[in-house]
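Reply to dn_fold:

You asked what the input looked like. This is it:
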Amino acid sequence: MSNIASFFTDKYHDVMSAADPRVEKWPLMDSPLPTITICLSYVYFVKILGPRLMENRKPFEVRGAMIFYNFLMVICSSILVFNGLRYQWLNGSSLKCEPVDYSTNYVPMMVAYNSYFYFLTKFIEFMDTVFFVIRKKNSQISTLHVIHHGIMPFSVWWGVKFVPGGHATFFGFLNSIVHMVMYTYYGLAAIGPHMNKYLWWKKYLTAFQMIQFVMIGAHSFQLLFRECNFPKIFVLWIGSHGVLFWFLFSDFYKKTYSQKKKDDDASCKKNYLSFFSQNIK
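and this is what came back:
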């Protein structure tokens, strides 16, 4: 038994020896265990503990906090996009092949800091679900929602630990653009029902998210067919997330909007038959 433990310990240290030394001392970056613990605690709270604590309580009124939170996330996402443009995508980075610059020069360090900031925002986004819990909106805590939020900090941790720059950062850059739009929508929706007339584009927001995952997958998997000094394991790691989330969001889109269309068609047919029957008497 001790030999097996020793084997896995040695393998773990071998893997970690390839990590980026620049991020080693940053909070939460020494080991994946704190991130795993936080993610599992999140799942436990939103699926078990939170609903149990709220079972005999009235829903909290947190509209002001939700408005503040959503527009805070718009600001965070905007900072990530701005830094991505400034230090990478408008600064000569290639969409075809961009190796990681592990130097301590100013621009590579800013890219690494931006990657780390993106990682931290994945924890802040747990508040999406916490608001559902304390408002007793348990029906909105779907499997898709929990998987998406629960897995992201763990997934991004590996990217920041080993490849905080280069080709890997397109994922976070594109995701931050989507989140700018998404949290703007949620912020406006939180203001009140009178904003609904301006929020007709929710369906297109889900489609926008699905397009994002196609682009992430295509951007990553191209390196399977192109020579590039970027680790192939992270090509597969990032690309597989694009595929996974595309299928999850596609299923959600079909269930939500296809069913809504069927319900609308059925309602229209029912109203037509009712009108027709009343007018032939």
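Residues 153 and 186 are 21 Å apart (CA to CA).
Hope that clears it up.
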